[in-house]
Amino acid sequence: MDRLFELAPEFWVAAAETLYMVALTLLIGGFFGLLLGIVLYTTRPGSLLSNKPVFTIVNVVINFFRPIPFIIFIAAVQPFARYVIGTGIGNDALIFALSIASSFAISRIVEQNLLTVSPGVIEAARSMGAGPIRILRTVVLPEALGPLVLGYTFVLVALVDMTAVAGAIGGGGLGAFALTYGYRQFEPAITWAAVILIVVFVQLAQFFGNWLARKIMRR
Amino acid sequence: MALVSLTDVTKSYPSPEKGGAPIVAVDSVSLEIEAGDVFGIIGYSGAGKSTLVRLINALEPTTSGTIEVGGRTITSMPERELRGIRLEIGMIFQQFNLFNSKTVRANIAYPLQVAGASKAEIATRVDELLDFVGLADKARAFPDQLSGGQKQRVGIARALATSPRLLLADEATSALDPETTQEVLQLLKRVNREFGVTIVIITHEMEVIQSIATKVAVMDGGRVIESGDVFDVFSSPQNPSSARFVSTVVKGVPSPAEVAVLRERHDGRIVTISFRDGGASQSAVFLDLANAGLEFELVYGGINDIQGRAFGHLTLAIRGADAAVDAALAQVGARAEVTEVA
Ligand SMILES: Nc1ncnc2c1ncn2[C@@H]1O[C@H](COP(=O)(O)OP(=O)(O)OP(=O)(O)O)[C@@H](O)[C@H]1O
Ligand SMILES: [Mg+2]
């Protein structure tokens, strides 16, 4: 326990690092995931802008990257990270890798949630003379907003989990903190302190997501 | 000139199996829908009604044939131009298809936004429509807070927002109970009368046709097998399938099984007399029978009112001497159609 008090400054820094990594990844990965998901949804056969070649290519690319275990993916994109953001190690390299990996995962979640919008509602908008882009912007996205928020909440929780491996490439965060000071130095109290804070983060995120989705869906 | 005219229109979908024959949903249909009509299309499930109506606002491209709406051929129009045409055609649906994320007001405003109306124009028009459908107090409600009938009234207001000349209704009352169905049908009647909107209404319920349609087309297997004035089709259907639909609301000539039941309950001769608007009046017929000193009883049938015109089949059990009955029936036969059923 005493050790935990000694390490308090490092602990809070680690917590802040986790929040930083999760927030930035959610922003970047969330944005590109949304774009990819919209491309998947709109180009699928029979959809608003159906386009078989584009759909097939995007679909195959996503299926190619999705199954790669994240810890291996980090190593695989390291050279690419060096080229783009100037470093292959540390928190920023992790954000880089995680943003890419999560965009692919998020695109599927976005696609699935957009597909829940009833075709009848889209047909109604078409019957009023609305074009595909307008329908996407003013009908599909608003109608799917509630489920989308829940989907992003799920992603947020998964991201907290995935940032825990940042230590593998010299990054920080609560995962690295627990491994370095708790696991390797035989201090279970330290490990547990990190675990508890992570659980608190996850609970808060889930609570907020549920609240927001409920507000949007008015249930 | 007709507001909508279809010439030899066919719509087929590729077969679900590879190499199979295509599914012909609409098969060489030709129809004329005049401005001001309430045009009913009736048929069993899978007859091609929805497909036909979706061709009229070009939600689906036709396979062959031409469709003209308001004198413009839509079957060869590019998508961009079709969007303009769709603004002039309203559509309502069985499942209402309201935007659940938008309020009633925003639902009705949507087509006006698509049409590029100003905020002020939209506000005035939406208020008008809310009053017309009697939902002014629900403007800020969301669709999931409304009953089915209220939802369809919002659907109607939304479809009328851009003041279209044509309203397409695909099973607009099929999800509603009988009382609410009548409410919605009466509202559609007002839309037709007060705004002169031509209505194409699809249904599988003859009651709907009977309540509001002026013309009807009967569809079966993608084809229109009979069409004409509702009164004509109801009073003398030419096709067995149309006759089946008519028999769901009109008690006509009793079937052989029904005749057997009547026979058991009543003695004497059982005779069906068919009345048509403009033909013999019932009182003249009854007077003939009474003057002949015959005793008679109404055992089956009824008189129907279609668009203010009456027709019907009355089946009577007549008791009396055979010769007297024959003489009386000969007299009645000169006034109305007489069929001896048992
Ligand atoms: N998009 C489609 N792809 C393939 N076949 C279709 C499609 N839409 C309709 N069909 C087929 O066309 C036929 C007519 O369908 P349609 O929906 O027009 O019938 P309907 O008369 O409206 O029936 P219901 O009363 O059940 O609504 C059916 O056999 C249906 O399976
Ligand atoms: Mg249908």
Automatic annotation (TrEMBL), chain A:
It comes from Agromyces salentinus. InterPro entries: AA_ABC_Transporter_Permease (IPR051322), MetI-like (IPR000515), MetI-like_sf (IPR035906). The keyword Transmembrane applies. This is ABC transporter permease. It comes from the Bacteria. Pfam families: BPD_transp_1. PANTHER family: ABC TRANSPORTER PERMEASE (PTHR30450), TRANSPORTER, PERMEASE PROTEIN, PUTATIVE-RELATED (PTHR30450:SF14). PROSITE patterns: ABC_TM1. It is a multi-pass membrane protein. Belongs to the binding-protein-dependent transport system permease family.
From TrEMBL, chain B:
It comes from the Bacteria. Residues 4-246 form the ABC transporter domain. One of its GO terms (molecular function) is ATP binding. This is Methionine ABC transporter ATP-binding protein. SMART domains: AAA, NIL. The keyword Ligase does not apply. It comes from Agromyces salentinus. The keyword Lipid metabolism does not apply. Pfam families: ABC_tran (PF00005), NIL (PF09383). Keywords: Amino-acid transport, ATP-binding, Cell membrane, Membrane, Nucleotide-binding, Translocase, Transport.
